[in-house]
């Protein structure tokens, strides 16, 4: 009977060891699986956040390119209208319709610049605002030039022509600064 009891006791101890070993192994497996799942979840969350950040940056770049292009097109339309006004003034043709067209194009340029406040960056917004300010003064000088030939005051006309030439130089400098700011922003984004 001692042998039977010893065999039974060995079996119970073996069973207990197997159950305990299985429990410890199962607990270790559970903890390892839980840790792996947490690491995978964090990695996935970081990947999704990174992708969202990348998509947002891509959208902003696309919108900035669109806005910068719209501003350049609006300025080109204004320059074309101003050129037509300049030619009409030189030929002493009626200019009222051309003055209205210039004003319409100036307003379009102002509207085209407004999204830079939201999309930025600040260097582009500041350059766009400077361009609008210089353009407004330039167009005002042209409007004055359009009215003066009727007054037939040669001295005053020469002073206004000089003012127009000075304002033209200011606008060209502001346009150059705006273009440089846009280029810097777009090239800097391409590096990131």
Descriptive notes:
The chain is built from 5 helices and no strands. By secondary structure, the chain is mostly helical. Helix 1 (2-90) runs antiparallel to helix 2 (96-113) and helix 1 runs parallel beside helix 4. It is rod-shaped and about 140 Å long.
Helix-strand layout with pairing:
Layout: H1 2-90, H2 96-113, H3 116-119, H4 122-147, H5 154-191
Helix pairs in contact: 1-2, 1-4, 1-5, 2-4, 4-5
Number of helices: 5
Low-pLDDT runs:
none
Number of strands: 0
Mean pLDDT: 86
Helix amount, in percent? Answer: over 70%
What percent strand? under 5%
Roughly how many Å is the radius of gyration?
37 Å
Secondary-structure-based class equals mainly alpha
Question: Major sheet, described briefly?
Answer: none
Order of helices and strands: HHHHH
Shape summary: rod-shaped
The N- and C-terminal alpha carbons lie at a distance of 83 Å
Tags for this entry?
192 residues, mainly alpha, 5 helices, 0% strand
Summarize it.
Helices cover 91% and strands 0% of the residues.
């Amino acid at each position: 009977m001692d042998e039977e009891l010893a065999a039974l006791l060995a079996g119970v101890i073996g069973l207990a060891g197997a159950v305990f070993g299985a429990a410890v192994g199962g607990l270790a497996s559970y903890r390892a699986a839980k840790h792996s799942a947490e690491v995978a979840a964090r990695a996935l969350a970081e990947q999704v956040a990174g992708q969202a950040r990348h998509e947002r940056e891509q959208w902003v770049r696309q919108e900035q390119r669109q806005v910068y292009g719209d501003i350049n097109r609006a300025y080109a339309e204004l320059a074309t209208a101003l050129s037509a006004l300049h030619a009409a003034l030189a030929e002493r043709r009626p200019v009222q319709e051309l003055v209205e067209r210039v004003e319409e194009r100036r307003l379009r340029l102002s509207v085209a610049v407004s999204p830079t406040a939201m999309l930025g960056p600040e260097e582009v917004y500041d350059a766009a605002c400077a361009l609008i300010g210089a353009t407004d003064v330039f167009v005002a000088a042209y409007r004055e030039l359009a009215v003066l030939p009727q007054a037939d005051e040669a001295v005053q006309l020469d002073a206004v022509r000089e003012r127009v030439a000075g304002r033209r130089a200011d606008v060209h400098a502001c346009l150059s600064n705006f273009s440089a700011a846009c280029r810097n922003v777009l090239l800097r984004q391409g590096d990131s």
